């Protein structure tokens, strides 16, 4: 479906159909995002779990809640030794660093290094340009509505995840 002004939307379309289309769009977004992530990982000699870890660290940083090694272990569903090995590889490769918590010296967070940010910006910069171009014709009100949709869906996914059986705490 191409970009349309909201006035051009079919008024006969019911809410259930729109919700189904949003769910379909999110699955497509997830699928292509995963494909792009695999290309980024391969082009930077990273393993798929390395990229997953980078995504968790980036998401936590952008939400103002830096992630610890223990939290990353839970988010990824891997053992503490496995996440420690992964973190050591990511530090050695220059993507991540340990950052002391300014309020609790016993706690250490994971953060991107300048090198890691540069590598990500180099790869994902063209995607950012394309995304901005794709959204340029949409009015701000549509972008605000889309943001509310993403916040709502992300919250629902996190709630669902927290209720799944097993060690899914996080």
From TrEMBL:
Pfam family for this entry, one: MarR_2
Top-level taxon of the source organism: Bacteria
Keywords (A to Z) from UniProt: DNA-binding, Transcription, Transcription regulation
InterPro entries for the chain: HTH_MarR-typ, MarR/SlyA-like, Tscrpt_reg_MarR-type_CS, WH-like_DNA-bd_sf, WH_DNA-bd_sf
UniProt domain HTH marR-type: residue ranges: 15-155
Name the UniProt record assigns to this protein: MarR family winged helix-turn-helix transcriptional regulator
Organism of provenance: Nocardia halotolerans
